[in-house]
Amino acid sequence: MITYPKYKAAAAHVSPVYFDIDKTVDKACDLIAEAARQGVQLLAFPESFIPGYPHWGRIVAPIETDALFGEMCARGLRIDGPEIARIRSAAKMHEVVVSIGFNEGTNASVGCLWNANVLIGSDGALLNHHRKLVPTYVEKLFWANGDGSGLKVSETALGRIGMLICGENANPLARYTLMAQGEQVHISSYPSVAPARNIDGSGGYDIQDGIRIRAASHSFEAKVFNIVASAPFDATARKFLEFLGDDKLALLDNGSPTVSMIIDPTGKPVSEIFEKDEGLCIGEIDLSKALPVKRIHDVVGYYNRFDIFDLRVNTAKNSPISWVDARESAMPRSSCEEQRPDDGIEEQSRHHE
Question: Could you tell me which residue ranges the CN hydrolase domain spans (predicted)?
Fold first, then answer.
Protein backbone atom coordinates (compact mmCIF):
# COMPACT_ATOMS: atom_id res chain seq x y z
CA MET A 1 0.00 0.00 0.00
CA ILE A 2 1.34 3.44 -0.96
CA THR A 3 1.80 5.94 1.88
CA TYR A 4 2.29 9.70 1.68
CA PRO A 5 4.73 11.10 4.24
CA LYS A 6 4.09 14.25 6.23
CA TYR A 7 7.07 16.06 7.77
CA LYS A 8 8.86 19.38 8.33
CA ALA A 9 11.19 20.77 5.66
CA ALA A 10 13.26 23.94 5.66
CA ALA A 11 15.07 26.31 3.35
CA ALA A 12 18.22 27.65 4.97
CA HIS A 13 17.90 31.36 4.22
CA VAL A 14 21.48 32.01 5.30
CA SER A 15 24.69 33.46 3.93
CA PRO A 16 28.02 31.69 3.70
CA VAL A 17 31.00 33.07 5.55
CA TYR A 18 31.97 34.50 2.22
CA PHE A 19 34.85 32.67 0.52
CA ASP A 20 35.91 31.03 3.79
CA ILE A 21 35.37 27.32 3.13
CA ASP A 22 36.05 25.98 6.62
CA LYS A 23 33.84 28.51 8.42
CA THR A 24 31.07 28.05 5.87
CA VAL A 25 31.16 24.27 6.34
CA ASP A 26 31.10 24.83 10.11
CA LYS A 27 28.04 27.04 9.68
CA ALA A 28 26.31 24.47 7.48
CA CYS A 29 26.91 21.69 10.02
CA ASP A 30 25.59 23.89 12.84
CA LEU A 31 22.46 24.65 10.82
CA ILE A 32 21.88 20.95 10.12
CA ALA A 33 22.02 20.33 13.88
CA GLU A 34 19.67 23.26 14.56
CA ALA A 35 17.22 22.08 11.90
CA ALA A 36 17.16 18.63 13.46
CA ARG A 37 16.44 20.14 16.88
CA GLN A 38 13.40 21.81 15.33
CA GLY A 39 12.17 18.54 13.85
CA VAL A 40 13.20 19.28 10.26
CA GLN A 41 13.87 16.20 8.13
CA LEU A 42 14.78 17.88 4.83
CA LEU A 43 17.02 20.95 4.65
CA ALA A 44 17.99 22.88 1.50
CA PHE A 45 20.87 25.38 1.28
CA PRO A 46 21.30 28.13 -1.38
CA GLU A 47 23.15 28.08 -4.69
CA SER A 48 26.97 28.02 -4.52
CA PHE A 49 26.74 28.14 -0.72
CA ILE A 50 30.27 26.82 -0.30
CA PRO A 51 32.05 29.20 -0.43
CA GLY A 52 29.76 31.87 -1.98
CA TYR A 53 28.41 33.26 -5.24
CA PRO A 54 30.79 35.31 -7.51
CA HIS A 55 28.84 38.59 -7.33
CA TRP A 56 31.54 40.61 -9.04
CA GLY A 57 30.70 39.05 -12.40
CA ARG A 58 27.89 41.51 -13.12
CA ILE A 59 29.53 44.65 -11.78
CA VAL A 60 33.19 44.44 -12.90
CA ALA A 61 34.65 44.02 -16.40
CA PRO A 62 36.05 40.49 -17.01
CA ILE A 63 39.53 41.83 -17.81
CA GLU A 64 39.74 43.13 -14.24
CA THR A 65 38.80 39.88 -12.51
CA ASP A 66 41.61 37.42 -13.21
CA ALA A 67 42.73 37.52 -9.58
CA LEU A 68 39.19 36.95 -8.35
CA PHE A 69 38.79 34.01 -10.70
CA GLY A 70 42.02 32.62 -9.27
CA GLU A 71 40.58 32.96 -5.77
CA MET A 72 37.49 31.09 -6.94
CA CYS A 73 39.51 28.28 -8.56
CA ALA A 74 41.51 27.87 -5.36
CA ARG A 75 38.20 27.20 -3.64
CA GLY A 76 36.96 24.53 -6.03
CA LEU A 77 35.66 21.62 -3.92
CA ARG A 78 35.65 17.96 -4.94
CA ILE A 79 32.62 15.76 -4.53
CA ASP A 80 34.80 13.24 -2.67
CA GLY A 81 36.71 15.88 -0.72
CA PRO A 82 36.79 16.53 3.04
CA GLU A 83 34.28 19.40 2.95
CA ILE A 84 31.46 17.35 1.44
CA ALA A 85 32.46 14.49 3.75
CA ARG A 86 31.84 16.74 6.77
CA ILE A 87 28.39 17.71 5.47
CA ARG A 88 27.61 14.03 4.92
CA SER A 89 28.67 13.20 8.48
CA ALA A 90 26.45 15.95 9.89
CA ALA A 91 23.49 14.76 7.80
CA LYS A 92 23.99 11.23 9.07
CA MET A 93 24.50 12.25 12.70
CA HIS A 94 21.29 14.29 12.76
CA GLU A 95 19.33 12.10 10.32
CA VAL A 96 18.48 14.98 7.98
CA VAL A 97 18.32 14.87 4.18
CA VAL A 98 20.48 17.78 2.97
CA SER A 99 20.73 19.62 -0.34
CA ILE A 100 23.66 22.05 -0.66
CA GLY A 101 25.25 24.07 -3.45
CA PHE A 102 29.00 24.32 -3.92
CA ASN A 103 31.70 25.57 -6.27
CA GLU A 104 33.19 22.40 -7.81
CA GLY A 105 36.65 21.94 -9.31
CA THR A 106 38.34 19.07 -11.12
CA ASN A 107 41.80 17.53 -11.23
CA ALA A 108 41.61 17.54 -15.03
CA SER A 109 42.06 21.34 -15.19
CA VAL A 110 43.09 24.09 -12.80
CA GLY A 111 40.64 26.48 -14.51
CA CYS A 112 37.50 24.38 -14.91
CA LEU A 113 34.70 24.88 -12.40
CA TRP A 114 31.06 23.87 -12.13
CA ASN A 115 28.12 25.34 -10.27
CA ALA A 116 27.17 22.13 -8.47
CA ASN A 117 24.71 20.75 -5.95
CA VAL A 118 24.69 17.57 -3.92
CA LEU A 119 21.75 15.78 -2.32
CA ILE A 120 22.72 13.79 0.77
CA GLY A 121 20.57 11.15 2.44
CA SER A 122 19.75 11.02 6.14
CA ASP A 123 22.23 8.14 6.34
CA GLY A 124 25.00 10.29 4.82
CA ALA A 125 24.81 8.63 1.39
CA LEU A 126 25.33 10.64 -1.79
CA LEU A 127 21.95 10.50 -3.50
CA ASN A 128 22.63 12.85 -6.41
CA HIS A 129 25.34 15.13 -7.76
CA HIS A 130 24.07 17.76 -10.19
CA ARG A 131 26.01 20.34 -12.18
CA LYS A 132 24.14 23.36 -13.54
CA LEU A 133 23.36 22.58 -17.18
CA VAL A 134 23.97 26.09 -18.49
CA PRO A 135 25.52 28.84 -16.37
CA THR A 136 23.25 31.88 -16.57
CA TYR A 137 24.34 35.13 -18.21
CA VAL A 138 27.76 36.21 -16.85
CA GLU A 139 28.13 32.93 -14.95
CA LYS A 140 29.62 31.58 -18.17
CA LEU A 141 32.76 33.53 -17.21
CA PHE A 142 33.25 31.22 -14.21
CA TRP A 143 31.50 27.90 -14.65
CA ALA A 144 31.46 25.27 -17.40
CA ASN A 145 28.31 23.58 -18.70
CA GLY A 146 27.09 20.61 -16.66
CA ASP A 147 25.60 17.42 -18.09
CA GLY A 148 22.51 15.27 -17.75
CA SER A 149 23.98 12.73 -15.34
CA GLY A 150 22.56 14.56 -12.33
CA LEU A 151 19.24 15.45 -13.92
CA LYS A 152 17.36 12.87 -11.92
CA VAL A 153 14.95 12.35 -9.06
CA SER A 154 16.12 10.56 -5.90
CA GLU A 155 13.93 8.05 -4.12
CA THR A 156 13.86 8.70 -0.36
CA ALA A 157 11.65 7.95 2.63
CA LEU A 158 10.48 11.58 2.33
CA GLY A 159 9.35 11.16 -1.27
CA ARG A 160 10.99 11.52 -4.68
CA ILE A 161 13.25 14.59 -4.56
CA GLY A 162 14.59 16.58 -7.51
CA MET A 163 16.44 19.87 -7.71
CA LEU A 164 17.47 22.59 -10.14
CA ILE A 165 19.83 25.53 -9.73
CA CYS A 166 18.57 29.11 -10.19
CA GLY A 167 17.92 29.79 -13.90
CA GLU A 168 17.42 26.08 -14.62
CA ASN A 169 14.02 26.54 -13.01
CA ALA A 170 13.05 28.53 -16.10
CA ASN A 171 14.02 25.65 -18.42
CA PRO A 172 10.79 23.78 -19.31
CA LEU A 173 12.59 20.67 -20.59
CA ALA A 174 14.77 20.33 -17.49
CA ARG A 175 11.73 20.77 -15.28
CA TYR A 176 9.69 18.27 -17.29
CA THR A 177 12.53 15.73 -17.04
CA LEU A 178 12.14 15.78 -13.26
CA MET A 179 8.34 15.78 -13.44
CA ALA A 180 8.38 12.69 -15.65
CA GLN A 181 10.45 10.80 -13.06
CA GLY A 182 7.67 11.18 -10.51
CA GLU A 183 9.11 14.16 -8.64
CA GLN A 184 7.18 14.95 -5.46
CA VAL A 185 9.47 17.49 -3.78
CA HIS A 186 11.44 20.03 -5.77
CA ILE A 187 14.39 22.08 -4.49
CA SER A 188 15.25 25.42 -6.11
CA SER A 189 18.49 27.15 -5.08
CA TYR A 190 19.41 30.79 -5.69
CA PRO A 191 22.18 33.28 -4.80
CA SER A 192 21.69 36.37 -2.66
CA VAL A 193 21.09 39.37 -4.90
CA ALA A 194 20.58 40.48 -8.51
CA PRO A 195 22.52 43.75 -8.99
CA ALA A 196 20.74 46.87 -10.19
CA ARG A 197 21.71 47.92 -13.69
CA ASN A 198 22.07 51.60 -12.73
CA ILE A 199 23.35 53.32 -9.62
CA ASP A 200 19.87 54.72 -8.90
CA GLY A 201 18.44 51.21 -8.81
CA SER A 202 16.60 51.45 -12.11
CA GLY A 203 16.85 48.82 -14.80
CA GLY A 204 18.07 45.32 -14.11
CA TYR A 205 15.63 42.61 -13.20
CA ASP A 206 13.61 41.84 -10.10
CA ILE A 207 14.84 38.43 -9.05
CA GLN A 208 12.14 38.15 -6.38
CA ASP A 209 9.45 38.28 -9.05
CA GLY A 210 11.42 35.80 -11.12
CA ILE A 211 11.72 33.36 -8.22
CA ARG A 212 8.06 33.60 -7.26
CA ILE A 213 6.90 33.03 -10.84
CA ARG A 214 9.25 30.09 -11.47
CA ALA A 215 8.59 28.42 -8.13
CA ALA A 216 4.81 28.72 -8.28
CA SER A 217 4.76 27.65 -11.91
CA HIS A 218 6.73 24.47 -11.28
CA SER A 219 4.73 23.58 -8.18
CA PHE A 220 1.45 24.10 -10.04
CA GLU A 221 2.48 22.27 -13.22
CA ALA A 222 4.26 19.37 -11.52
CA LYS A 223 1.95 19.25 -8.47
CA VAL A 224 4.96 19.20 -6.16
CA PHE A 225 6.16 20.95 -3.03
CA ASN A 226 8.92 23.42 -3.86
CA ILE A 227 11.62 24.38 -1.34
CA VAL A 228 13.18 27.65 -2.47
CA ALA A 229 16.54 28.38 -0.78
CA SER A 230 18.32 31.72 -1.23
CA ALA A 231 21.03 33.62 0.64
CA PRO A 232 21.03 37.17 2.03
CA PHE A 233 23.92 39.43 0.98
CA ASP A 234 25.74 39.83 4.28
CA ALA A 235 28.64 41.72 5.84
CA THR A 236 31.20 38.99 5.11
CA ALA A 237 30.48 39.24 1.37
CA ARG A 238 30.58 43.02 1.45
CA LYS A 239 33.89 43.03 3.32
CA PHE A 240 35.47 40.58 0.87
CA LEU A 241 34.35 42.75 -2.07
CA GLU A 242 34.93 46.21 -0.54
CA PHE A 243 38.13 46.71 -2.55
CA LEU A 244 35.89 47.07 -5.62
CA GLY A 245 34.80 50.46 -4.33
CA ASP A 246 31.57 51.95 -3.05
CA ASP A 247 30.24 52.72 -6.54
CA LYS A 248 30.41 49.04 -7.52
CA LEU A 249 29.06 47.79 -4.21
CA ALA A 250 26.14 50.20 -4.52
CA LEU A 251 24.98 48.13 -7.48
CA LEU A 252 24.63 45.20 -5.10
CA ASP A 253 23.21 47.28 -2.25
CA ASN A 254 20.54 48.70 -4.57
CA GLY A 255 19.82 45.38 -6.25
CA SER A 256 16.93 43.02 -5.77
CA PRO A 257 17.41 40.59 -2.84
CA THR A 258 16.42 37.00 -3.34
CA VAL A 259 13.75 35.22 -1.35
CA SER A 260 13.23 31.84 0.38
CA MET A 261 9.96 30.00 0.93
CA ILE A 262 8.17 26.66 0.63
CA ILE A 263 5.30 26.29 -1.85
CA ASP A 264 2.61 23.62 -2.01
CA PRO A 265 1.30 21.74 -5.11
CA THR A 266 -1.24 24.51 -5.80
CA GLY A 267 1.49 27.15 -6.08
CA LYS A 268 0.79 28.79 -2.70
CA PRO A 269 3.32 29.39 0.11
CA VAL A 270 3.05 27.14 3.17
CA SER A 271 5.81 28.89 5.10
CA GLU A 272 7.01 32.35 6.01
CA ILE A 273 8.71 34.24 3.21
CA PHE A 274 12.27 35.24 4.06
CA GLU A 275 14.05 38.16 2.35
CA LYS A 276 16.84 39.89 4.29
CA ASP A 277 17.18 38.36 7.75
CA GLU A 278 18.81 34.96 8.15
CA GLY A 279 16.86 32.01 9.45
CA LEU A 280 15.37 28.60 8.79
CA CYS A 281 12.29 28.93 6.61
CA ILE A 282 10.22 25.97 7.87
CA GLY A 283 7.05 24.52 6.42
CA GLU A 284 5.09 21.28 6.51
CA ILE A 285 5.16 18.93 3.55
CA ASP A 286 2.21 16.59 3.17
CA LEU A 287 2.61 14.60 -0.02
CA SER A 288 -1.05 13.51 0.00
CA LYS A 289 -2.00 17.07 -0.99
CA ALA A 290 -0.77 16.38 -4.53
CA LEU A 291 -3.46 13.75 -5.15
CA PRO A 292 -6.56 15.91 -5.73
CA VAL A 293 -4.72 18.39 -7.95
CA LYS A 294 -3.02 15.60 -9.92
CA ARG A 295 -6.47 14.27 -10.66
CA ILE A 296 -7.39 17.58 -12.29
CA HIS A 297 -4.22 18.18 -14.33
CA ASP A 298 -1.37 15.66 -14.64
CA VAL A 299 1.06 16.47 -17.45
CA VAL A 300 3.06 13.27 -16.89
CA GLY A 301 -0.08 11.14 -16.67
CA TYR A 302 -3.40 11.36 -18.44
CA TYR A 303 -3.15 15.06 -19.36
CA ASN A 304 -0.69 14.68 -22.23
CA ARG A 305 -0.27 13.19 -25.69
CA PHE A 306 2.78 10.96 -25.64
CA ASP A 307 1.94 9.83 -29.18
CA ILE A 308 2.60 13.43 -30.27
CA PHE A 309 5.32 14.64 -27.91
CA ASP A 310 8.59 12.86 -27.16
CA LEU A 311 11.45 14.03 -24.93
CA ARG A 312 14.86 12.31 -25.02
CA VAL A 313 17.45 13.07 -22.32
CA ASN A 314 21.15 12.23 -22.52
CA THR A 315 22.26 11.21 -19.03
CA ALA A 316 25.89 10.46 -19.95
CA LYS A 317 28.52 12.15 -17.82
CA ASN A 318 30.82 14.48 -19.76
CA SER A 319 34.51 13.60 -19.75
CA PRO A 320 37.43 15.37 -21.46
CA ILE A 321 38.92 12.06 -22.58
CA SER A 322 37.93 8.52 -23.55
CA TRP A 323 40.49 5.72 -23.58
CA VAL A 324 40.49 3.34 -26.55
CA ASP A 325 42.66 0.22 -26.85
CA ALA A 326 44.19 0.11 -30.35
CA ARG A 327 43.83 -3.68 -30.43
CA GLU A 328 40.11 -3.33 -29.81
CA SER A 329 39.58 -0.65 -32.47
CA ALA A 330 41.01 -3.03 -35.08
CA MET A 331 38.53 -5.81 -34.28
CA PRO A 332 34.78 -6.09 -34.87
CA ARG A 333 32.77 -4.84 -31.90
CA SER A 334 31.46 -8.27 -30.95
CA SER A 335 35.00 -9.68 -30.91
CA CYS A 336 36.21 -6.77 -28.82
CA GLU A 337 33.54 -7.37 -26.23
CA GLU A 338 34.40 -11.06 -26.08
CA GLN A 339 38.16 -10.51 -25.84
CA ARG A 340 38.24 -7.29 -23.76
CA PRO A 341 41.14 -7.52 -21.27
CA ASP A 342 40.19 -6.91 -17.67
CA ASP A 343 42.63 -4.04 -17.20
CA GLY A 344 40.34 -1.41 -15.64
CA ILE A 345 40.66 0.99 -18.60
CA GLU A 346 36.92 1.15 -19.19
CA GLU A 347 36.30 1.92 -15.53
CA GLN A 348 38.91 4.68 -15.59
CA SER A 349 37.34 6.32 -18.64
CA ARG A 350 33.95 6.46 -16.96
CA HIS A 351 35.26 8.20 -13.87
CA HIS A 352 38.13 10.28 -15.22
CA GLU A 353 37.70 14.05 -15.25
Answer: 7-287
Cα–Cα distance measured from residue 70 to residue 91, given in angstroms and rounded to the nearest whole number: 31
6-296: CATH superfamily: Carbon-nitrogen hydrolase (3.60.110.10)
Q: Which alpha helices (DSSP H) does the chain contain, by range?
A: 21-37, 66-74, 82-94, 172-179, 207-222, 235-241, 246-253, 290-296, 326-329, 333-339, 345-351
Residue ranges per structural domain of the chain: 6-296, 319-353
pLDDT truncated to tens, each residue of the chain (353 aa)? Answer: 888 999 999 999 999 999 999 999 999 999 999 999 999 999 999 999 999 999 999 889 999 999 999 999 999 999 999 999 999 999 999 999 999 999 999 999 999 999 999 999 999 999 999 999 999 999 999 999 999 999 999 999 999 999 999 999 999 999 999 999 999 999 999 998 777 666 555 666 778 888 999 999 999 999 999 999 999 999 999 999 999 999 888 888 877 788 999 999 999 999 999 998 999 999 999 999 999 999 999 999 999 999 999 999 999 998 899 888 877 665 555 433 333 333 333 333 334 34
pTM value is: 0.90
**Which of 34, 47, 221, 284 is flagged as catalytic?**
47
